[in-house]
Amino acid sequence: MPKTYSVRFDSKLAVPMRDGTKLYADVFRPVGAGKYPVLLQRTPYDRTDASMRMYFLDSIDAAKKGYAVVIQDVRGRYASEGEFHTFINEQNDGYDTIEWAAKQPWSNGKVGMFGGSYVGATQWLAASQVPPSLKGIAPVVTASDYHEGWTYQGGALVHAFNVNWTYSLTAGNWDNLRRRYGVGKRQFNKLIKSIDDMGPALKHLPLNTNPDFQGEVAKYYNAWMEHPEFDSYWKKVAIEEYHSKINVPALNIGGWFDIFLG
């Protein structure tokens, strides 16, 4: 009969990045002394959300079975410091987080990653930097090229997806917007209303002048339109550019209606 452990939960642990920025993580792990393999999920969707703790992996169940589960807010999201810009920071931040996890007293030095969509991207982007302690990844419904098949399709901007995703990211947490960018309740309610009725935003022209995505709130949205071609902006984070370097085992999971396999 496999051993079952009692579970310890540590909330909002600071994980320092190489530039001094602190990203925050929750940890579920067995109680008491011991060193355990680590399962890491890096998310922009709130590490405290029940879906992050249970959807792809039941964190408590995994800890009972002898794993340390680390769930982290990526840079600029929810509790974590810094500015969120899609994809750009996930390579170095992923590397630094993996090596931090490997060095913790409750870790056996072996780290695996899991999760889907953008949380799959955080896995591949970390793997592209070949962190020595990363031993496996399990990305679900994600992409290997964030230009073609994610932001653009056949050279055309995937406008509806980009607008919808940006509203979801910006309106995901008012406290985050208030603290980080000074967004007031009225502006936040306008973001929520735009999610409920996206028609005006989809019809707005020029595309890069949507008033909800100006300034610091969603700088990445306009960057996507400033780089319509597969240039250095996209090439730096294109996983296919790193295939010759990446040697970590990967369990890739897609689906019949996988939006990134268009």
- Terminal-residue CA separation: 45 Å
Note poorly predicted spans: none
Can you give the helix content as a percent range?
25-40%
Main β sheet profile = 6 strands, mixed
Q: How many DSSP-defined strands?
A: 8
Number of helices: 10
Structural class: alpha/beta
Instruction: Strand order, main sheet: write it out.
Output: 1-2-4-3-5-6
Portion in beta strands: 15-25%
Shape: globular
Radius of gyration: 19 Å
Order of helices and strands: EEEHHEHEHEEEHHHHHH
Oligomer: single chain
The mean pLDDT is: 93
Describe the structure.
There is one protein chain. The protein has 262 residues and is α/β, with parallel strands linked by helices. The protein has helices spanning 50-54, 59-64, 90-102, 118-127, 159-170, 174-181, 185-196, 199-203, 219-226, 232-235; strands at residues 7-16, 22-30, 36-43, 68-73, 107-116, 134-140, 152-153, 156-157. The strands form two sheets. Strands 1-2-4-3-5-6 form a six-stranded mixed beta sheet. A two-stranded antiparallel ribbon has the order 7-8. Helix 3 packs across helix 4 and helix 5 runs antiparallel to helix 7. The longest helix is centred in the middle third of the chain and has 13 residues, at 90-102. The model has no long low-confidence stretch (mean pLDDT 93).
